[in-house]
Amino acid sequence: MKHCLGLLLAALVTAPALAQTAAPSPCDQQLVGYATPLPAKPVWTYTRTLPAGGRVYYFGAEHSQDAAHAQFARIRQAFAETKPTIVLFEGPNRGTDSTETATISRLGESGYVRFLARQQNIPVASLENPVAEYTFLKTLFDLEQLKLFYMLREAQRLRTRTKASPEQITKAMEALLVKSAQMLPGSDQVIRTVPELAAAYRKYWPDGGNWWEAPAAWFDPAASSANTGGKFTNDINRASSEFRNQYMYRLIADKARAGQRVFAVVGRNHVPAQAPALDCALSTN
């Protein structure tokens, strides 16, 4: 996760009104929570064909920008076999690059499925609803902690995924903070500048080193904030991930029940977490 601020901004710019989630479904109870360990041998791919013609191919990917990674050949083959009518991906729509290799190198697996879809003129859509997610999280967490979480998680993503330098991360945070009133409505009274970001970080982690070096373990939804030292970051990430799991499986099920051949790619742990709920939803008329 990883990409939340850019996705939230895109959603707020394009959405005419605040997006709302559907009413609770009995199938929501089938989602596997993050407190439950994954099976010893998780199944990272979910497939289902419906009698009315809808189909789901749901691929759990490793987050990778290495074009030589074997998963990209598997994605390409599955895409050709599925013949999708819609492609769903995790994160914001950052478009594609000019070639397959360049797209993977810059945009990873989510960019790659958009690249494949573009070649066939197949519509694409994100598997996330960041506006509704942010609205939900505001009901559970302190606004300063929530904004700090978003900023630190994005800094950690830039540091680990793109190998950005501290100077590059700082510039990215400056740009995001300028837009934060739009991206994170109501948060413009807290953490408005990078110095204020650094001060908020020191407030919670006085001995935590540099804010741009927040450990990846702090953003593991299956871990405890008390155990990782994240104080509240793991708790927020768990609530975020559980919200996203619910939204993802519902969207996939709705498309398949409408007769679409759905090809979806996400970070792999989402698939076993959502599979029982998908089974439930796809078995419901």
TrEMBL record:
<protein>
    <recommendedName>
        <fullName>Haem-binding uptake Tiki superfamily ChaN domain-containing protein</fullName>
    </recommendedName>
</protein>
<keyword id="KW-0732">Signal</keyword>
<feature type="signal peptide">
    <location>
        <begin position="1"/>
        <end position="19"/>
    </location>
</feature>
